[in-house]
Structures are given as C-alpha cells and as structure tokens.
Write a structure and sequence with these properties.
The chain is mainly alpha-helical. The protein is 55% helix and 0% strand. The protein has helices at residues 2-12, 33-47, 65-86. Helix 1 (2-12) packs across helix 3 (65-86). The N and C termini lie far apart (30 Å).
Amino acid sequence: MYERVAEALATQFNVPREALTPRATVGELELDSLSLLELVVRFEDEYDLDLGSGGDTGIGPGSTLGEVAALLDDAVRAREAAAAGARP
C-alpha cells in the first residue's frame, strides 16, 4: 500500500519522488488539509472504504507515509473481513 500512496502523491500532488519515504510526514511534504482530504477520498473511493466521518481519519500533519499506508492496509483488511463474515 505504501507504493500506492507514494505514487498518488507523486502523480496527483506533484510531490517530488525523492521526498517520498516511509518516514516522511504529511507536514514535511507540505500537504495542506484539502490535499490530505483529496488523498483520503481517493483511497476511500478506490477501495470502498470509510476512513472517518467529519474528516477525522486519524491522519494529520505528524503522520508518516508509512503510518498512512498502514492505516489504509488495516481498513482494507477490516472491510474484507467484514465482507467475508457477511457471506452466507
């Protein structure tokens, strides 16, 4: 998932690829709240997720890209587990 996050930041938000490391924070990459919201919505749409109501996703300026990727991985796994449990 980290690679997908990095690719989205490079292509959609023009973040230099050399700045994209798992330890880089959202704040260090100078992503404003609107950019962060756009990134979250992109992954919510792509993976059919709901990462938080009212913009409370748990992702903020101090979050690292590794943490963002882990949050997305966890959300995808939870959705898949819920879907598997709902099957008759």
